[in-house]
Design goal:
Low-confidence stretches: none
Number of domains: 1
Number of strands: 2
Number of helices: 4
Structural class: mainly alpha
Oligomer: single chain
Distance between the termini: 47 Å
Radius of gyration: 20 Å
Strand content: under 5%
Order of helices and strands: EEHHHH
Mean pLDDT: 89
Strand order of the largest sheet: 1-2
Helix content: over 70%
Shape: elongated
Length: 87
Amino acid sequence: MSKPAEHDVAGLKCGDVLAALSDFLDGDLDPAKQRQIAEHLRGCDWCEKFGGRFSEVIGSIRRELADPAPLKPEVAARLRDRLAKTH
């Protein structure tokens, strides 16, 4: 997906939006910045597509990490042994 020229939508350039996209998805921005990025995404096709794909990847990673596969007993034992040696 090649990036077109920077667009200035809602007072933000595409690069500014992409730099803040992770914080936007996490809800870590102040409400005014959150709204400004949302407005940019609605008005910029490229950022909306990229942001959508980025959001899907982040969502998938979060789902995987929320329900990790259990460790095999031998792996857990090795980890405990290694941690005990470092303390």
